[in-house]
Structure formats: C-alpha cells, structure tokens
Specification:
Elements (H helix, E strand, L loop, with lengths): L2 E6 L1 E3 L5 E8 L8 E6 L6 E6 L7 E2 L8 E6 L4 E6 L8 E8 L5 E3 L3 E5 L2
C-alpha cells in the first residue's frame, strides 16, 4: 500500500523560510506527478506547487507562490520537497504532499502544520 510521510514545518517568523519533505513508499514514485497543497484555518485546500512525473521538467505555481515556493523531487530517494521563503501570516496552513496519476491512483501525506507568526 502506497503512502507518504511528511516532515518539517513548524513555527516561522514573518519573512522567514521553511522546508517540507515528503517520503513516498509502496508505489511507482517516479511515474507520478507531485503536488503540494495547503489548507489554511477555516479555508479550503488549494494547490501551491506542482511538478511533472519523471525528471520533473515542468512545474506550476499559483501567482501568489511564484518566486517564493520551490518544489523538487528525488526519485531515487522517493522524496518530494517544498522550499518556502518570504513567508507571511497568510501562508499559515496545514501542508499536504500529493501524488496522483492519470489512472486515478492517489496518495496523500498526513499533513504538516506551518505557522507564520511573530
């Protein structure tokens, strides 16, 4: 059974940086596009970064994340990362990693809290 285990996050001061990691197992990691989502307090889940399968040549970021968030992957280690900088309180959320194939197979991380506050 495939799964993801997330790590990182925590409390960050405004203007600071945070790194999230997600370890995959039990599925063909390199064949899946990867995404990071977040869900702010009282809000809905939104995508914050996407990376194509394989070598990850294609990435996508919503405008609010461009230049601040960076997604990367290491297929050999079955890891996906999210580097975040210039964080502000609006970035406070639970962050989730996600892998979803066109076939419909999908895996989620357990979610990890990032709190941006002084």
């Amino acid at each position: 059974q495939g799964q993801f285990v997330e790590s990182g996050g925590g409390w960050v001061q405004p203007g600071g940086s945070a790194s999230l990691s997600c370890a995959g197992s039990g599925f063909a990691f390199s064949e899946f596009p990867m995404r990071w989502y977040r869900q702010p307090p009282g809000g809905g889940r939104e995508v914050v970064a996407e990376m194509s399968a394989g070598g990850g040549e294609m990435t996508y970021y919503p405008d609010a994340m461009k230049g601040r968030f960076t997604i990367s992957r290491d297929n050999a280690a079955k890891m996906v990362y999210l580097q975040m900088k210039s964080l502000n309180p609006d970035d406070t959320a639970v962050y989730y990693c996600n892998a979803r194939a066109l076939s419909g197979s999908e895996y989620w991380g357990q979610g990890i809290q990032v709190i941006v506050s002084s």
